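> run fold Phytanoyl-CoA dioxygenase
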Amino acid sequence: MNIIKQMSEQGYVVISEVINKKEIDIIREYYKKILERNNLSTLLPTDVLKSPDVFNTILKDKVVTAIRELFSRDFSLFPNFTIRESVYIPWHNDAYFLPDEVINPEVPLQFMQCAIYLQDNDPELGGGITLIPFSHRLDQPTVKSMLNTPQAYEKVIMSKAGDLILWDNRITHRSTYPDKAPDNTKLALQWTVSASERHNESYLQYLQDRAQCSMHVSDYLLKSPKPYFADMPNVRYPDSFHQDSLNIHGRSCLPSTRVKKSAV
Ligand SMILES: O=C(O)CCC(=O)C(=O)O
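> ok
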């Protein structure tokens, strides 16, 4: 099945091996170094930008090509790129805070969540996500009733370390919970993209609001990611971007991708 058809029918795709073992280790090391400095398990976007080795992963040809193909056009990148540690989030949907036209199961794909997990996913050890295929095409009451017996519908995405998972942000998903202690820290590089600028302002407002209020289920987790949301207005294009990232952007990889000039 091609990726456009799979995204449309299943609500997610896996692009395998977008980064290799050496690149995984570099991102893991960078996370560890920054964690020692500020003790935040959701890295600040401006800290991600300081390392072109990390940020440029998002701009890799294989990544950008897949996103462009799925949207059939250039796209916007939001200032919410981060590396997150040991996030375990229950069933949720990332679109319910957006305008009705975005949530509507009938409309074409508009927002995608992107994650490169830095370890394999495993039903016992966790490390990635579990989702309900096709739930992006269902209305809220239907999904709610399915969540009474999610085992009947869920699918553990068996991604490998370094794979990119892209999901329609209307899909109902959760972290794959570990049944026993994983042997490695669960880490993921994550970000959001959109196909049209029509709803970008409301999404940016939503990200800004989350610096003050708890809205999404993940805002209620023990380690609050509020400093991460509060940092997003500091992402300014081009001033907060490393020259190596700007070179990639200018070279052609993202000729017209609209990195937001003023984040929020
Ligand atoms: O990485 C995970 O475990 C879950 C991520 C997630 O649910 C999200 O970003 O919406």
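Residues 64 and 253 are 7 Å apart (CA to CA).
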